């Protein structure tokens, strides 16, 4: 029962699921327009689908041994593709005059991917936990104290990743720390420096 629940939590709080809702959350907060949030969400889904297609082809071709990319040596390909795709996404955001908040989020995503790649050279960190930690930190910074409760999802997902034997305690702590710190650094840069 615990393993089933842990797998369910891991699936629901998967980075792709979080990235699928992130554009709406950010654009709606920045513009107050539901239609703009929906448009940029659907636009962003094109790139999320391209990533998913690359990922599933990689699974089929055995570049990745499983859906969690558990083998550390396989992760750089995923990070490199993600960074390249993010640069193309940035080009289109600029071309179509996207809200500034999407550029800020994209900067954070690229920064997070670079940090994950650097950490990956030393140890494995949980991308699931890092993504969720970044998301709930952004929610709390953008929407206020009521979203501080969403931080309770971090230990829940951490527990799930440990129970499913995808990560150790150390790896989920590294992931959580990275997600929170990268988000805070991006927030400080764009709030107080840029």
Q: What does this protein structure show overall?
A:
It is built from 8 helices and no strands. With 194 residues, the chain is mainly alpha-helical. It has one domain. Helix 7 (153-163) packs antiparallel against helix 8 (169-193). 31% of the residues are buried.
Short summary:
The chain has 194 residues and is mostly helical. It has eight helices and no strands.
Quick tags:
globular; 194 residues
Blueprint (SSEs and pairs):
Elements: H1 2-12, H2 15-31, H3 34-60, H4 75-95, H5 100-120, H6 127-143, H7 153-163, H8 169-193
Helix pairs in contact: 1-7, 2-3, 2-5, 2-6, 3-4, 4-5, 5-8, 6-7, 6-8, 7-8
How many individual β-strands? 0
Tally of domains? 1
Instruction: Give average pLDDT, whole number.
Output: 95
Portion in helices: over 70%
| H and E order | HHHHHHHH
Strand content: under 5%
Largest sheet: none
Class from secondary-structure proportions? mainly alpha
Rough outline = globular
Low-confidence stretches: none
Distance between the termini: 49 Å
Instruction: Report the radius of gyration as a whole number of Å.
Output: 16 Å
Question: How many helical stretches?
Answer: 8
């Amino acid at each position: 029962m615990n393993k089933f629940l842990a797998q369910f939590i891991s699936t629901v709080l998967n980075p792709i699921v979080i990235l699928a809702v992130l554009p709406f959350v950010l654009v709606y907060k920045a513009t107050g327009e539901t239609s703009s949030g929906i448009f940029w969400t659907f636009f962003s889904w094109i790139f999320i689908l391209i990533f998913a297609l690359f990922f599933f082809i990689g699974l089929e071709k055995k570049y990745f041994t499983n859906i969690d990319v558990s083998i550390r040596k396989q992760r750089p390909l995923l990070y490199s593709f993600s960074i390249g795709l993010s640069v193309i996404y940035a080009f289109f955001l600029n071309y179509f005059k996207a809200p500034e908040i999407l550029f800020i989020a994209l900067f954070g995503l690229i920064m997070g991917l670079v940090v994950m790649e650097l950490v990956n050279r030393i140890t494995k960190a949980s991308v699931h936990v890092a993504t969720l930690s970044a998301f709930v930190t952004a929610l709390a910074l953008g929407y206020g104290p009521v979203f501080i409760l969403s931080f309770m999802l971090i230990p829940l997902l951490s527990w799930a990743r440990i129970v499913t034997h995808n990560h150790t305690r150390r790896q989920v702590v590294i992931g959580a720390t990275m997600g929170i710190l990268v988000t805070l650094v991006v927030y400080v840069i764009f709030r107080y420096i840029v």
